[in-house]
Amino acid sequence: MQMKTIKWEITEETARITFTRPEKMNVINTEFLEELGQVLDKIAKKEVRVLVLTGEGKAFCAGADIIEMTSRETVRQVLYFNHMVNTLLNRIEDLPIPIIAAINGHTLGGGLELALACDFRIAVRGAKIGLPEINLGVIPAAGGTQRLPRTIGITKAKEMLYMGEPISADEAEKIGLLNKTVLPSSLEAETEKLVESLLKKPALALSMLKEAVNQGTQLDLRRGIRYEGKVFALLNDSKEKEEGIRAFLEKREPVFK
Ligand SMILES: C/C=C/C(=O)SCCNC(=O)CCNC(=O)[C@H](O)C(C)(C)COP(=O)(O)OP(=O)(O)OC[C@H]1O[C@@H](n2cnc3c(N)ncnc32)[C@H](O)[C@@H]1OP(=O)(O)O
């Protein structure tokens, strides 16, 4: 289905959202956020098990629309927009399914913050990856100062944030910001391969795993381990555990429905 800033497709088990303003580097504006939120509502109502986010053109997403940014004159207008962006990115981070950012090109500012809210990041070689906000006299405001250090460590995060210099996809993979870099011609196939692998995993256990890891980044070690234990216990009488154990004993691959 084509909307003004994105198009989306939901099949039996997967959903795919494509940002469709390549001429504007798929920048984040109010309309984009509203449409993304509408599609997340649709996905939440289905038994979708994997979501792929990708873009058309040379950029996955070049960040917040700088032109629209200049129209936000009062602190309140900025606070409202930040609330809108972060509500959406937190929804993505909390969606109880694996989300893949299939990074088709430059991923800067809010675009990288969007990708950081996803579970996997596969990028094409040649993509510029960074948080250049400091060079605009501002700082990231969609989680970049929080998720980036938690993802790659404070040392490289401060370097990326303070210098505002984009890095290459290869460098981003090296520092653990990306799962993989691929040739542009392979992005689709590599993404589908990851989707297929994830669809073979137990959906409930994957959701619980995401929940435990995400909550763990916000808890101290002991509370995180306690949280993990409770999530583990919830799976104890699941059909997925039954199948997993039975498949092991019968020396065969498990089939998680
Ligand atoms: C809380 C969050 C804050 C933020 O995210 S702040 C924004 C952070 N993002 C950036 O600073 C990235 C800015 N954009 C760029 O650096 C470059 O673009 C690219 C590297 C992405 C691509 O460069 P190239 O291939 O030379 O294309 P081009 O001529 O710069 O851009 C094509 C058209 O796209 C518009 N555009 C690009 N990025 C943005 C943006 N972030 N906000 C608004 N417009 C943008 C340009 O202006 C231009 O438009 P026209 O063709 O009309 O001249």
TrEMBL record:
Keywords: Lyase. Its EC number is 4.2.1.150. Homotetramer. It comes from the Bacteria. It catalyses: a short-chain (3S)-3-hydroxyacyl-CoA = a short-chain (2E)-enoyl-CoA + H2O. Pfam families: ECH_1. PANTHER family: ENOYL-COA HYDRATASE, MITOCHONDRIAL (PTHR11941:SF54), ENOYL-COA HYDRATASE-RELATED (PTHR11941). Belongs to the enoyl-CoA hydratase/isomerase family. InterPro entries: ClpP/crotonase-like_dom_sf (IPR029045), Enoyl-CoA_hyd/isom_CS (IPR018376), Enoyl-CoA_hydra/iso (IPR001753), Enoyl-CoA_hydra_C (IPR014748). Signal peptide: none annotated. GO terms for molecular function: 3-hydroxyacyl-CoA dehydratase activity. One of its GO terms (biological process) is fatty acid beta-oxidation. This is short-chain-enoyl-CoA hydratase. The lineage of its organism: Bacteria, Bacillati, Bacillota, Clostridia, Neomoorellales. The keyword Lyase applies. Pathway: Lipid metabolism; butanoate metabolism. It comes from Metallumcola ferriviriculae.
